[in-house]
Amino acid sequence: MVTMRPTVLRSDGKEVEGKGFSPEELKKAGSSLTEAVRYHIPVDPRRKTAHDKNVETLKPILEEKKAAAKARQRKRKSKG
């Protein structure tokens, strides 16, 4: 599994682990705030920046979560 924390730049130029992905990063990765909450992806609505590195980190996480959700959905339909 890929790490679910973004990296952010501090004012002194160092990269540190952030609290969550920015709404702009979610949008660039092809997701919405609603989907992020549904898939338990951490979001920090206070952040305004969108780092390409975080967008690239977010894409495989979203693909993995969406595939798992579809598999659960198919499993439920086959039982009923």
What are the salient characteristics of this protein?
80 residues; mainly alpha; two-stranded antiparallel sheet; 3 helices; 50% helix
Q: How would you describe what is shown here?
A:
By secondary structure, this protein is mainly α. It has one domain. Helix content is 50%, strand content 8%. It contains three helices and two strands. A two-stranded antiparallel sheet has the order 1-2. Strand 1 and strand 2 form a beta hairpin. The longest helix is centred in the last third of the chain and has 28 residues. It is elongated.
N- to C-terminal distance: 31 Å
Q: How many strand elements?
A: 2
Order of helices and strands: EEHHH
The spatial strand order of the largest sheet comes to 1-2
Task: Report the average pLDDT across residues.
Answer: 89
Report low-confidence residues grouped into runs of 5 or more: none
Q: How many domain regions? A: 1
Note the beta-strand portion: 5-15%
Largest sheet: 2 strands, antiparallel
Helix content class: 40-55%
Give the structural class. mainly alpha
How many DSSP helices?
3
From the spread of the alpha carbons, the general shape counts as: elongated
What does the radius of gyration come to?
A: 15 Å
